[in-house]
Amino acid sequence: MASYCVNKNQQPTGEHEVHNVETCTVLPRPENRHDLGNHSNCSSAVTKAKKKYPNSDGCAICSPSCHTR
Question: Is 90 exceeded by the pLDDT of residue 69?
Answer without folding.
Answer: no
